[in-house]
Amino acid sequence: MIVGDLIYLCPNGFEDQGEYMGLVLRKKELGSGRRGSTTLYDVLLTDTNELVTISDIYFTMRKV
Predict the structure, then answer these.
(1) What is the Cα–Cα distance from 42 to 22, expressed in whole angstroms?
(2) What is the pLDDT along the chain (64 residues), one digit of tens a residue?
(3) Using alpha carbons only, how large is the chain's radius of gyration in Å?
(4) Would you list the DSSP string of 7-57?
(5) What domains lie within the chain, and their CATH numbers?
């Protein structure tokens, strides 16, 4: 994912809760990459106009 992508979000383990749509506003990679790393995304949700920070560990994301 890159900044400006329109994405679908689905919480891992809670697929029955539905999917959300959002716009990626910022991306930040954390960790050294040796033992593993994660990426944080600031996403503007289209349904509620809220800005949320999510991790690729807890959400499945795909481009629209």
Answers:
(1) 10
(2) 899 999 999 888 876 777 889 999 999 988 876 777 889 999 999 989 999 999 988 888 999 8
(3) 12
(4) EEEEETT-GGG--EEEEEEEEEEES-SSS--EEEEEEEETTT--EEEEETT
(5) 6-63 (2.30.30)
CA separation for the pair 28, 49 (Å, rounded): 21
In the structure encoding, which two tokens stand for residue 7, read together?
């994405």
* CA distance readout (Å), 23 to 10, 31, 33, 40: 14, 24, 26, 13
Question: How many other C-beta atoms can be found within 10 angstroms of the C-beta atom of residue 41?
Answer: 22
Give me the count of residues in the chain: 64
CA angle 60, 6, 9 (to 5 degrees): 25
